[in-house]
Amino acid sequence: MLRIHCPLCGERPYTEFRYGGDAGKHRPVHGAGGIEAWHDHLFLFENAKGPHREFWQHVQGCRQWLIAVRDTATNIVADVALARDARGLEPQGPGER
Amino acid sequence: MMRYSLPRLVGHALRDRPWPRAWRKATPRSHYDVVIVGGGGHGLATAYYLAANHGVRRVAVLERSYIGSGNVGRNTTLVRSNYMMNGSTQFFEFSLKLWEGLSQALNFNVMLSQRGQIVLGHSPAQMDGLARRGNTMLLNGIEAELLDRGQVQRLLPYLDYSPAARFPIAGGLLQRRAGTVRHDAVAWGYARAADSLGVDILEGCEVSGFLLDAGGVHGVQTSRGRILADRVALAVAGHSSQLAALAGLRLPIESHLLQAFVTEPIKPFVDHVISFGAELFYLSQSDKGGLVFGGHIDGFNSFTQRGQFPKAQGVAQCALALIPGMSRLKLLRHWAGIQDMTPDGGPFICRTPVRNLYFNGGWCYQGFKATPAVGWCLADTIARDEEHPLVRCYGLERFAQGGASLDEYGHGHWTYRH
């Protein structure tokens, strides 16, 4: 089973976490970039076969949003950091829901 | 091609000779009218209909591995046409009609078994939803029957109807023409029929790049050398993004794992295809006797072709909530296929921004049952350089245009929630 090393809680099975998608994406600034930038942000995916930066929220643990680097070809997680440290985000993470 | 028939079968039984190969081991030519990348069900069907319907005979199908190695041999073999969103309703009904005549058309028994599919409803609200879906089908000329609890119980007496049932069964929606098809036979049947019309099937031939210029694509670079082509089509579900990236395209697709499961074989027990209404879970019994079932995707993008174990536990819980009698069955094996997931759960069959490059992918759970219609419509799209009317709703530009949504369950743009 996929296991993720939470920086606060230690290594846990992935079922304790909620997946949050590609963390390489950056939401366009409101009013800038036009509809095309929003289309690309919402609907296009890099879909990397290899290292993939992605959001996970430790919903059954510390509830922090994390950014993990997982190889999508092997499911090996190389690196996990708190999202707010890794991307300078506000604590609630990607925020779209 | 040797035609299969009863006299042939009898005659062959009397002679001590192996059957001839179903298709040639072709060697690549330097130039084709159409090159199809991906030798799965979709690619082979497209090649067959290009030759059979449009007289395009100089066609090559490029398969990185061997025929039948991908998702065409990894699915749960269901065929049905009970889709509600406009566009999908008509497309999948067209596909089911092609399934009904496919064994004759291909001279290969694909073992279509129209045993009927029942989608269960577990609450009055869900029954309203099923009634709406059934009415949509009826308005499109597709038969559908709404069943109450008693009718479901007569057809499926082995489900849990006790007061302790976790999700009490309120009724169901039955499509009698739905059923199963032997998936390997679909790959072999299309390969053999396409080959007999002159299509070259090139196994062990991996595409590593496209030959591009200002006029679009004019060939592919492969592990078996450079192959020129007037038109190139992609049908490589699972790796659509990787291949399209070689042509400079970014797609609204993410690759996810979908697992399928089969139990040890038992005597005939489940006569229909059953879909649970409380979770995404579907079950049928194979001709060998194993109960075949599947559920949701794993929930995060991956190319490993190895599923996560908690999903096996999840589908087992669904199975027992529905059929408590399955509790003593052993799971024989389970496996995962890499599946294109899209922001609305709908597929793509279309031209692309690169001239002479055509795309088929994004099949989110639905790819196998769509096989004949994909082949038919993609062949037509390639031959006429214009989308077939049935697939105009399946364009890559639909998100930018904000047009009609194909999102059957209203999950929004999260690929991993469809």
The parts of chain B where pLDDT drops under 50 for at least 5 residues are: none
CATH homologous group name of chain A: Folate-binding superfamily
- The helix-strand sequence of chain A is EEEHEEEH
Q: Report the uncertain regions of chain A.
A: none
User: Remind me, CATH topology of chain A?
Assistant: Folate-binding fold
Class derived from helix and strand content of chain A = alpha+beta
What is the string of SSEs of chain B from the N terminus onward?
A: HEHEEHHEHEHEEHEEEEHEEEEHEEEHH
Shape of chain A: globular
Share of β-strand residues of chain A = 25-35%
Beta-strand percent range of chain B: 25-35%
Biggest sheet of chain A: strands side by side, in what order? 3-4-5-6
* Classification by helices and strands of chain B: alpha/beta
Q: What summary fits the major beta sheet of chain A?
A: 4 strands, antiparallel
The overall pLDDT average of chain B reads 95
- For the record, the CATH architecture of chain A stands as 2-Layer Sandwich
- Summarize model confidence as the mean pLDDT of chain A: 88
As an assembly, this protein is heterodimer
Could you estimate the helical fraction of the residues of chain B in percent?
25-40%
Number of strands of chain B: 18
Largest interface: A-B, 24 and 26 residues
Count the helices of chain A. How many? Answer: 2
